[in-house]
Amino acid sequence: MEEKEIKGKEAFVHAVISNVKEETENMKPDDWRALLHNWIRC
Amino acid sequence: MSEHWFSIQLKPVGNMCNLRCKYCYARPHASGEVMSYDVLEQVIKKTLQQDYLYPTFSWHGGEPTLAGYDFFYQAMLLIEKYKRPNQVVRNLIQTNATRITPQLAKLFKKYNFIVSISLDGPEHIHGINRITREGNNSFSQVMDGIKILRQYGIEPSVICTVSRETLPFAAEVFHFLISQGFKKIKYSPVFDSTRDEFSITSDEWYRYLKTVFYEWFKVGDATIQIRDLNEVIAWLLKRSINLCSCNRTCLHWVSIDPKGEIYPCEYLREKYYYGNITQIEELRDIYYTSSYQEFKKIYETVPLKCRHCEFFKVCGNGCPATRVRDGKISLDGVYAFCEQRRKLFYEIEKVFKSVIKNERR
User: Which of B63, B175, B224, B249 is deepest in the core (most CB within 10 A)?
Assistant: First the structure.
């Protein structure tokens, strides 16, 4: 990727990593991400 | 009480559906019966009897809302009746949204349902496959349903199925979904067999998700969560998210049809039958059936390719029903989208590393 394309995306990348980290650390009962699975295909 | 959760995929109308989506795996079984009150009570009672703090009822179909308002109302009353102290019961519903009424939306809101709707993109893309029995595009009915859900304070997540015909529209679909305010998106590749006219290959799936990733990256909004990308991003942290396709086990999930028959899931019902909810004392009795024990062995068999794979711990060889060996679907094969996962990981890793490197300059 060119530098101009990644410029200003630092906060985004950190936020994404933080979201995933939180998801994998804290499986809260009211967290849809912890519960939704891919049983259904359509 | 156990901290672990247990999830029941409840199919109140089996595979019965008011739509006739062209790619649907359940098409040959598109008629059926509604689960009786007695079976429903047995399912809820025996699920909540178990030693799990977070039991989850995942309402699926076919189209589960065909069971009607009264069915769901009775189900909620039964949950109230059998819920144990401190137990946190969650309800999820996967719906095509075409049958959502204000009454149903109000009930879902009252009981904190997590609602996931099936939408394949803007009207001209959605209508390629998701059609009514009469052959009409179901798009406007879906959007009406979403509107009703939102009127009652429910913000649905979306499952977007990707078939061979909709492959070229990755960017358009993504931008449509976010323009409609969806923040939680899951894509689902059609995979019925390696020769199916609707099915997509691992490489096509990789290229589709790669496009979605770069579009998401350009938008730069971390409040938009894309399940399929998170699945791989979790690997950057050497973790695995809680999907049955990467947990190395799906033994904490079972599927129950209108007659009360119990299976691991829809895709494995022909091979593994755990029993009938009305004929067992407790749900845990299924753990002792030969069928359950046999299914358990699936996870003990690791293909040669996986044994030396650096991702095996977090990938687990994917969904057993989506494994291929010698060009055919086979439980002892390798996950059909194995290469997609690996390539996507390296693609995202490359981008994320360059961003972080740039930041340190």
Answer: B63
- Taking only the tens place, the pLDDT of each residue in B324-346 is 888 888 888 899 889 998 999 99
Q: What is the Cα–Cα distance from B232 to A20, expressed in whole angstroms?
A: 10
Partner A contacted by B319 (CB < 8 A): yes
CB contact under 8 A, B244 and A37: yes
User: How many A/B residue pairs have CB atoms within 8 Å?
Assistant: 135
Give the closest-approach CA distance of A4 to chain B in angstroms: 10
**d(C-alpha B295, C-alpha B312), whole Å:** 19
pTM, entire model:
0.90
Are B245 and B319 contacting, i.e. CB atoms less than 8 angstroms apart? yes
Report the residue of chain B nearest A28, measured CA to CA. Answer: B54
CA distance A36 to chain B (A): 7
B245 and A37 within 8 Å at the Cβ level: the answer is yes
Q: Are B256 and A36 in contact (CB under 8 A)?
A: no
ipTM associated with this complex: 0.82
Q: Copy the structure tokens of residue B305.
A: 């390719």
At residue B338, what is the residue type? C
Cis before B327 (ω within 30): no
**Residue contact B157–A32, C-beta within 8 A:** yes
Answer whether B162's CB lies under 8 Å from B189's CB.
Answer: yes
